[in-house]
Structures are given as C-alpha cells and as structure tokens.
Amino acid sequence: MELNADFSKPVVVHSDRIDWQPSPIKGVDRRMLDRIGDEVARATTIVRYAPGSRFSAHTHSGGEEFIVLDGVFQDEHGDYPAGTYVRNPPTTAHTPGSEAGCTIFVKLWQFDMADRTQFHKDMEAELGAPSEGVATAVLHRDAREVVAYSKLEAGAAMTSHAPGGIEMLVISGTVTVDGDVLERNAWLRLPDGAALTATAGDQGAKLWIKTGHLTHAKAPAV
Q1: How many domains does the chain contain in total?
Q2: What are the tens digits of pLDDT across the range 83-118?
Q3: pTM above the 0.85 mark?
Q4: What pairs with residue 151 in β-bridges?
C-alpha cells in the first residue's frame, strides 16, 4: 500500500474529517496519514485504543516514536498520559495497550537503524521561555532530524526554513498555513526546500514539528 508516498509534494490531511479504519487488533482503529507498505510499513498514523484494548508483545524492528494525544497509553515500561513523547528505537519490544482508552500519533520505521536511544518526555515540562509568543522544546536532535514541540499564544506566528523537509501535527488549537486553517489533529508535510509559516488562532496552538528527516524516507527493510 502507498498513501501520500511522494515526499517531493506537500500534503495536508484534516484527519478528524476522515473515517476510522479497523486495525488487525480488535478495539484498535486508525487514521492513516502516510504509508509505504502493508502491515509492516513506513507509516505515520493516528491510532485509537478502545478501553481495555491491547496488542500482543512485539519488537519494533524499525523503531517507533509517538505522542499521546489523549487518555493514557500503557506498556510494561510505564503509563504515559496525554502530552508524553516516546521514542522506542529499533530492537525495542513492548506489549502496548490502554485500560481506559487513548489516542496516539505514531510513526513507524523512520529511525536510523543504528539508533538505540530510548526515552520518554513530558513535552510541556520541556518548554523554554516564550519569545514573541512562541515557546519551544527540542525533544530530540540527531544528524538526521530535529523533533520539537511548540506552544503558540493567540495570533503568534512561527516560521521554519529547515532543510530536509518539515512535518507538523496540530495537537490543540488552530493554525493558519497558506490560507488553510488547520484544526486539532490536522497533519502537514512539506518537502525538502519548502518553508513553513504557521499563525495561531484565537485560542493559540500546540504543535509537534519534525524537520530534516524526509530526505531519508524509504520503505522498511524487511
């Protein structure tokens, strides 16, 4: 399967406007944003766990990173409430689920295969002091990518000219990009060489942004 697999083109998905699709696991549904592959895939997805749902134990051969958007995600390593950013690099294993239910934004098979740095962070706790209405936390940085969380006050604007492509998820609030209003859970991807300017709406906005990584995009090595 290929979905939004041409990384030379910009794409915007207003994900709350598309239907949930069932996964192979009962009680776990998903909204696919981009994908190369079938059940083993380089994929960007919003996943919803019904209360009490759980995956069987598995290893992430290509790595996994995710944000908890609502509820509490759980595995044998801990409980991760909304606002948590998690990186599980290649070779890590777990048994994920959620007793109360949760929703996560997850990216699979997008790691440097030599990466072994595993961690989780409370994104809000990482924020620095605001400048011109924008507070930012750098959650992860390596030679391939920079992952950040930004909190914008009402009317504040942020701009990125980062090389290697830009990806953004609206966690809360709204932002306007090139005249398009992106609401909660809207997802944007811009190719290498593009620039991003996002202006927050009346309620401000919280954004997850990754840059530099799209030049490395490829199908999973299986």
Answers
A1: 2
A2: 999 999 999 999 999 999 999 999 999 999 899 999
A3: yes
A4: 135, 206
